[in-house]
Amino acid sequence: GAGVSQSPSNKVTEKGKDVELRCDPISGHTALYWYRQSLGQGLEFLIYFQGNSAPDKSGLPSDRFSAERTGGSVSTLTIQRTQQEDSAVYLCASSLASYGEAFFGQGTRLTVV
Amino acid sequence: QQPVQSPQAVILREGEDAVINCSSSKALYSVHWYRQKHGEAPVFLMILLKGGEQKGHEKISASFNEKKQQSSLYLTASQLSYSGTYFCGTKPIQGAQKLVFGQGTRLTINP
Fold first, then answer.
1. Taking the C-alpha atoms of A106, B37, A78 and A74 in order, what is their torsion angle to the nearest 10 degrees?
2. Chain B residues with CB inside 8 Å of A6's CB?
3. What's the confidence (pLDDT) of residue A18?
4. Could you say which of A42, A98, A107 has the minimum Cβ distance to residue B101?
5. What secondary structure letter does DSSP report for A17?
6. Which of B45, B97, B99, B101 best probes binding to A when mutated, by most A CB atoms within 10 angstroms?
């Protein structure tokens, strides 16, 4: 596609429910990142995929968070048993190689009520 | 490890200059600069690779001092459209290759 696509753009969920956030990177991009941005805050690193290498999960805040990337393309970030503190904008970015510029999607705004 | 940006916020009048600094405790392979406007996704400005190069983009330029593990973003003759939050992202030479961002610098340009 022309850019990084994320869906849904907005998600409201009840506390305790599971949610799945999707990211479609730019075709051919081998590197994919997930970040979390709370209101007025910075870009918190969550997870990094590079090609067929094992993902860098060092930024996942708890074991309720997981992510996978199928076929080196689409990625899904799953949050289990959502909590109110999970409310944030979740941003996905991809780059052509591990050292290239990263292009961001428009993000998914998650609200846990 | 997260790079440190300074200052945290800057308020300028249109036409004034600004410098935003980014420093890391690790030896860096690359520094990436992004600008984010309110409610929008971060937009790439430029990338600097180790070698101490300097890059420019219209009236926005940046330098990278790999020995000091620092980068600076220079905005000259600022325009209203430069307002936003600027983030530097860094990748280390060794170790994990994730792109980690600083806490951001909020730039406000007033007429």
1. 30
2. none
3. 98
4. A42
5. -
6. B99
User: Terminal CA-to-CA distance of chain B, rounded, Å?
Assistant: 37
Say what the pLDDT of residue B52 is: 60
Distances (CA, A) of A77 to A21, A36, A47: 5, 11, 9
A43 with B47: Cβ contact below 8 A = no
What's the pLDDT score for residue B95?
65
User: Is B32 close to A35, i.e. CB distance below 8 A?
Assistant: no
**CB burial of residue A7 (10 Å; 0-12, 13-18, 19+):** middle
